[in-house]
């Protein structure tokens, strides 16, 4: 069994295999509506006859909920120290109500509030899981698997909700989602009844002994800025990929199939990272992810045929998928309390929430070619900030080693 339950408090059990699976399942179910947003967006237009801009506002409300929920989760976990099980239960309850309101509501404001609440609930669940996973002695592998749940939500949610829309319509689809969330409450007894970020101890997985690591006062704020900048623009470029394919003259069906394949490539990338685990330094994963984004974005500047476009799309999804688990695991090592990893998750979700709007402004003002150039520059700045933090951490580590050697010599 992975992880061991202390005799003194069963609710404070280390993060074991059952708990990790529970976190993955609960978050996957809560994130299905976000992963399937493209088809739900179309259903709002087709079934409820909403204007495109209104349906877009409803979709934006859900992504905005991710950013707001990340901030809320950070406060509730690190400042208020609410129990992990309590937060998970409340988030699932809010999400269930949000799906029911979405199914029954006809007015725009209740629909937008419901989708905002759905996104917030998913983000809080995500934060609870990240807070516990980041306290592992080796967080890279479980973080890679957990982040992959967001891509799996799209890979499962799109075909699943396509089927439910055909069978039961939009209202039936939201009610079906509410039923799945209700079933997910069966996982609640597995989730610890203790505050997620309260205890300083770090626990292990895969048979590892629990270890304690003191928090290290490293200047990680430049890395948080790097994360926010990166996901601000990679989220913006990602939203425009379908438009880019159409501008290049490709058929919509082929582009949609390619983007779906891209989601599976992203999922496969996180699974591969989980399999590799600590056998490769995380700094190389972050470097590869940035380079992949830069190369793929540069390739979109001059598309030379379908193979060129397809290659750029798949490489872009690979880079986009590798960065979250790698950068969050670095933050988790820097700060074993889990606070910095939660801050990184907030930066990612804020970037994804506002990125499409910011990028659309850049496209509207300066054109698509300039916007791609700006994105490449931002990815380069993000990589520079990351390497700067890593270099500083290396100098401090060498200084600590020298100080210890000097102490022994004296």
Automatic annotation (TrEMBL):
<feature type="transmembrane region" description="Helical">
    <location>
        <begin position="253"/>
        <end position="276"/>
    </location>
</feature>
<feature type="transmembrane region" description="Helical">
    <location>
        <begin position="87"/>
        <end position="106"/>
    </location>
</feature>
<feature type="transmembrane region" description="Helical">
    <location>
        <begin position="283"/>
        <end position="303"/>
    </location>
</feature>
<feature type="transmembrane region" description="Helical">
    <location>
        <begin position="341"/>
        <end position="359"/>
    </location>
</feature>
<keyword id="KW-0812">Transmembrane</keyword>
<dbReference type="InterPro" id="IPR011701">
    <property type="entry name" value="MFS"/>
</dbReference>
<feature type="transmembrane region" description="Helical">
    <location>
        <begin position="20"/>
        <end position="44"/>
    </location>
</feature>
<keyword id="KW-0472">Membrane</keyword>
<keyword id="KW-1003">Cell membrane</keyword>
<keyword id="KW-1133">Transmembrane helix</keyword>
<feature type="transmembrane region" description="Helical">
    <location>
        <begin position="112"/>
        <end position="131"/>
    </location>
</feature>
<feature type="transmembrane region" description="Helical">
    <location>
        <begin position="168"/>
        <end position="191"/>
    </location>
</feature>
<feature type="transmembrane region" description="Helical">
    <location>
        <begin position="50"/>
        <end position="75"/>
    </location>
</feature>
<feature type="transmembrane region" description="Helical">
    <location>
        <begin position="365"/>
        <end position="389"/>
    </location>
</feature>
<feature type="transmembrane region" description="Helical">
    <location>
        <begin position="221"/>
        <end position="241"/>
    </location>
</feature>
<dbReference type="InterPro" id="IPR050189">
    <property type="entry name" value="MFS_Efflux_Transporters"/>
</dbReference>
<feature type="transmembrane region" description="Helical">
    <location>
        <begin position="143"/>
        <end position="162"/>
    </location>
</feature>
<feature type="transmembrane region" description="Helical">
    <location>
        <begin position="309"/>
        <end position="334"/>
    </location>
</feature>
<dbReference type="Pfam" id="PF07690">
    <property type="entry name" value="MFS_1"/>
</dbReference>
<dbReference type="InterPro" id="IPR036259">
    <property type="entry name" value="MFS_trans_sf"/>
</dbReference>
<protein>
    <submittedName>
        <fullName>MFS transporter</fullName>
    </submittedName>
</protein>
């Amino acid at each position: 069994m992975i992880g061991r339950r202390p005799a003194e408090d069963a609710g404070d059990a280390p993060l074991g295999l059952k708990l990790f699976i529970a976190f993955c399942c609960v978050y996957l179910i809560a994130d299905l509506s976000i992963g399937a947003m493209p088809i739900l967006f179309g259903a709002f237009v087709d079934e409820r006859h909403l204007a495109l801009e209104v349906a877009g506002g409803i979709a934006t409300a859900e992504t905005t909920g991710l950013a707001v929920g990340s901030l809320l989760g950070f406060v509730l976990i690190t400042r208020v120290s609410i129990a992990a099980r309590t937060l998970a239960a409340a988030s699932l309850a809010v999400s269930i109500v949000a799906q029911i309101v979405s199914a029954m509501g006809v007015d725009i404001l209740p629909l937008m509030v419901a989708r905002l609440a759905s996104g917030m609930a998913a983000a809080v669940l995500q934060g609870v899981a990240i807070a516990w996973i980041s306290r592992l002695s080796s967080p890279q592998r479980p973080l890679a698997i957990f982040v992959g749940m967001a891509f799996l939500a799209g890979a499962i949610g799109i075909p699943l909700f396509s089927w439910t829309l055909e069978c039961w319509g939009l209202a039936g689809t939201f009610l079906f989602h509410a039923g799945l969330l209700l079933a997910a409450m069966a996982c609640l007894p597995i989730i610890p009844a203790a505050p997620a970020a309260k205890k300083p101890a770090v626990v292990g997985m895969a048979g590892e002994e629990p270890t304690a690591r003191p928090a290290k006062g490293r200047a990680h704020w430049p890395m948080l800025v790097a994360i926010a900048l990166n996901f601000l623009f990679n989220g913006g470029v990602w939203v425009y990929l379908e438009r880019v394919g159409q501008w290049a003259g490709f058929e919509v069906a082929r582009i949609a199939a390619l983007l779906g394949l891209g989601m599976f490539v992203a999922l496969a990338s996180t699974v591969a990272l989980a399999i590799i685990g600590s056998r490769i330094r995380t700094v190389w994963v972050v470097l590869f992810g940035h380079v992949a984004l830069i190369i793929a974005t540069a390739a979109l500047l001059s598309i030379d045929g379908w193979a060129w476009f397809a290659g750029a799309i798949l490489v872009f999804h690979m880079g986009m998928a590798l960065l979250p688990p790698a950068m969050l695991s670095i933050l988790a090592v820097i700060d074993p309390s889990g606070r910095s990893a939660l801050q990184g998750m907030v930066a990612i979700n804020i970037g994804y929430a506002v990125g499409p709007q910011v990028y659309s402004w850049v496209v509207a003002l300066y054109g698509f070619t300039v916007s791609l150039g700006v994105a490449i520059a931002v990815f380069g700045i993000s990589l520079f900030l990351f390497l700067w933090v890593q270099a500083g951490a290396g100098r401090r580590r060498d200084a600590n080693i020298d100080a210890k050697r000097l102490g022994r010599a004296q």
